[in-house]
Amino acid sequence: ISLYVRRGFHKICIAKVESDQFVRYSANIGELCILHGGASGTLLMAGMTKKELDAYEKEIGFSKLTENTITDRITLDKAIKKAKNDGYCASFKERRNNTAGIGVPIFDYNNRVVACLNITLPAERYNPGIIPSWVEILKKAGVEISKKNGYPT
Fold it and tell me: How much is the pTM?
């Protein structure tokens, strides 16, 4: 489980708890990654204004990281809208061919997305049927963290 924040057009992992599974994904604390591609990046982009998204598209673009990476603005806008409506985002092989992720937003006192709590796992262990139970756990934790930020619930 990793906690990401946005720094400009990048995400950065600021905390993590490692799985005890022998094969696991491990985020690197402090590593900057571009935002597009993956659940955590989509959620952090959900906290950006249209002007910021336009600038991201112009300056960074949507390079193809895998066969499943979102590479155009229309699809990204749909993914952001879905994440906002659902209150979570799931991805499968969007950033790397061997990972999947499920994340929830963390809000501040102004109801702005300021971080993302994300589970990343090897793609072989990804099962869409487990998403609802993980989302429930993540949302509960996300709300608790958001409350500590002054988020009005």
Answer: 0.92
